[in-house]
């Protein structure tokens, strides 16, 4: 499925936001970063498997 530049930029911004959140938690220690990663995984899965799906 082709993607527009706007859609692609949105994905890149989301990825940068995720990295920034993890970097902030790394300042609090590895355990805090791991907890943040687990939260992010749950958020992503919720978006991927939502019903009805986003179109």
What features would you describe in this structure?
This protein has 55 residues and is mainly α. 75% of the residues lie in helices and 0% in strands. The chain contains two helices and no strands. The longest helix is centred in the N-terminal third of the chain and has 22 residues, at 5-26. The protein is flat and about 40 Å long. The protein starts with a helix and ends in a 7-residue tail after the last helix. 0% of the residues are buried. The mean pLDDT is 85.
Radius of gyration: 14 Å
The overall pLDDT, averaged over residues, is: 85
Query: Which regions are unreliable across 5 or more consecutive residues at pLDDT < 50?
Result: none
Shape: flat
Main sheet makeup:
none
* Total beta-strand segments: 0
Helix-strand topology string: HH
Report helical residue fraction.
over 70%
The total of helices stands at: 2
Label the structural class: mainly alpha
- In terms of DSSP E residues, the strand content is under 5%
- In whole angstroms, the N-to-C terminal distance is 12 Å
Task: List key phrases describing it.
single chain; 55 residues; mainly alpha; 2 helices; 75% helix; flat
Brief summary:
This protein is mainly α.
List the helices and strands and how they pair.
Elements: H1 5-26, H2 30-48
Helix pairs in contact: 1-2
């Amino acid at each position: 499925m082709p993607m527009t530049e706007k859609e692609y930029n949105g994905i890149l911004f989301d990825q940068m936001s995720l990295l920034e959140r993890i970097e902030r938690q790394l300042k609090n220690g590895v355990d805090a970063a791991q907890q943040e990663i687990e939260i992010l995984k749950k958020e992503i899965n919720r978006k991927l498997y939502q019903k009805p799906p986003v179109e």
